[in-house]
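Exam revision sheet. Question 4 asks you to relate a sequence to its structure. Input first:
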Amino acid sequence: MEIKLYEGVPAKEIVDAILDVHKEVFEDETLPEKAATKQNVRFFVAWDNEKVAGYKIGYELSPDTFYSWYGAVRPEYRGQGIASTLMKQQHHYLKDAGYVMVETKTRNKWREMLILNIKHGFDVTETFFDGDGIHRIILRKQL
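Answer key, structure tokens:
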């Protein structure tokens, strides 16, 4: 397994490989268009040879705060610590880049992600109902 960092939106073939995982988990195909609008977007990708095993994507909210946006691991790769490794890599990079805070949002239905975030030092700082009436959880971590 190799973790690669892509600063900015990667080449189409890499995005397509990430989308294979993303669509399966989030049922969303608009990731490339959304990512292109984000400031200082970063893609951390776990590669198993030529196959994306998982990814973590985020972008800058402010000069000192980074938003950890999307992340997923292919079902057949789960339970191997890939999500934790991606998160650790992301946080190490962010700290070295001068960020002091990382923020993320999740939902109760993504309990594995909620637990992973808490295990890695995030605190629940707020909850709210979004425009679709979905209960959302905001978490923050000091780097």
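Marking note for examiners. The mean pLDDT is 95.
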